[in-house]
From TrEMBL:
Name used for this protein in its record: ATP-binding cassette domain-containing protein
Keywords per UniProt: Amino-acid transport, ATP-binding, Cell membrane, Membrane, Nucleotide-binding, Translocase, Transport
Alphabetical list of Pfam families matching this protein: ABC_tran, NIL
Organism in which the protein naturally occurs: Yanshouia hominis
Domain ABC transporter: 2-241
Xref: SUPFAM superfamilies: ACT-like, P-loop containing nucleoside triphosphate hydrolases
UniProt key word Membrane: yes
Gene Ontology MF terms in the entry: ATP binding
């Protein structure tokens, strides 16, 4: 659906040149929600703007919906762009026009009659659940409502693709979730291909099927969200994942010398990470029962991603050492990653 081949974008030249995007190739499938994550300045916005050629790549080829956009003349490009909607962090609504007029704007000059335009805008308002605000002005709306209007406007010309550039970054967590739910519904109902640019792993986790991680203008890692979360390859990816999990707080507790992590010699602190899609057994209660050991959970961060439990927990396991070790072997056989964070036998040693 979207093919980016060896995209480079350089701003300026000579010693002032900024290589915002460096040789990025991505293939985004029809009907998927694809995420692009990176810290500020990684080149995400520039890359996403290359998809609809708001930014012309310095080199490389962009093909959307079977049409190569790079190399098109202005007129053909304008037409092709109508099938690529875009929404932004700052909503970009026209302040002097009502909600209705904002959504109707892209339809002027489309050849549709006034009645047909009205019908279309009303159905879009319904789709984004904003029918009651049709005569309001943007200044009278909350951030989430403004983004709903921006989404309706982006959908007015029946695009096949929706590009979302930090679309939820200005919103509180609850509103973010409601906008992400709306995008998910649009993806399912309209078969819309959605590209989400964000610096928040929580956004990726919530709605994306696949993700690309950007650093210094390049894509350093990409794949299914579940696989990336369960087995990140790059340091930057791990950093993003840590922002959505509380498990690493165990290291703070150890460093602070918290009494919570003071161990008796028969105790171990372990981190268990679920990395398989088929973990469905009640593993903790079963090791406790079958091996006669105690498992005291300190932190837990288990979520359902792509219908499978992902994440893990940090726990103190206590009991006869041979039984604890047998329980650990049992977990490893069940494809649970087990990392010993602290061993009571080794006083304050931290191993991993
Ligand atoms: N029009 C421009 N002229 C010169 N440099 C630019 C331009 N647009 C972007 N850049 C530079 O390109 C690099 C990538 O910027 P870009 O906005 O794509 O990153 P980003 O990952 O989207 O970051 P943010 O989330 O902060 O927007 C940055 O160093 C930025 O300063």
């Amino acid at each position: 659906m979207i093919e980016l081949e060896h995209i480079c974008k350089t701003f300026g030249s000579g010693e002032h040149a900024v290589h915002a995007v460096r040789d990025v190739s991505l293939s985004i499938r029809e009907g998927e929600i694809f995420g692009i994550i990176g810290f500020s300045g990684a080149g995400k916005s520039t890359l996403v703007r290359c998809i609809n050629l708001l930014e012309a790549p310095t080199t490389g080829r962009v093909t959307v919906n079977g049409q190569e956009l790079t190399g098109m003349d202005e007129r053909a490009l304008r037409k092709a762009r109508k099938k690529i909607g875009m929404i932004f962090q700052s909503f970009n609504l026209m302040p002097s026009r009502t909600v209705f007029q904002n959504i109707a704007y892209p339809l002027h000059g489309s050849g549709l009659s006034r009645e047909r335009i009205e019908e279309k805008v009303l159905s879009l308002l319904e789709l984004v659940n904003m029918s009651e605000k049709r005569d309001a002005y943007p200044s009278q709306l909350s951030g989430g409502q403004k983004q709903r209007v921006a989404i309706a406007r982006a959908l007015a010309s029946d695009p096949k693709v929706l590009l979302c550039d930090e679309a939820t970054s200005a919103l509180d967590p609850q509103t973010t979730r409601s906008i992400l739910r709306l995008l998910h519904t649009l993806n399912e109902r309209l078969g819309l291909t959605i590209v989400v640019i964000t610096h928040e792993m929580a956004v990726i986790k919530e709605i994306c099927g696949r993700v690309a991680v950007m650093e210094n203008g390049a894509v350093v890692e990409q794949g299914e969200v579940f696989d990336i979360f369960s087995n990140p390859q790059q340091t930057i990816t791990r950093e993003f994942i840590h922002t959505t999990s509380n498990l690493s707080k165990i290291y703070d507790l150890i460093e602070e010398g918290s009494p919570v992590v003071e161990l008796r010699p028969d105790e171990l602190i372990v981190q268990l990470t679920y990395v398989e899609k088929n973990v469905s057994e009640a593993l903790i209660s079963s090791i406790s029962r079958n091996f006669g050991i105690d498992v005291n959970i300190i932190f837990s961060s288990i979520e359902i991603i792509q219908n499978a439990p992902l994440g893990g927990l940090v726990a103190i396991m206590s009991g006869p050492r041979d039984q604890v070790e047998a329980a650990v072997r049992f977990l490893i056989e069940k494809n649970v990653q087990v990392e010993v964070i602290k061993d009571g036998r080794m006083a304050s040693a931290v191993c991993s």
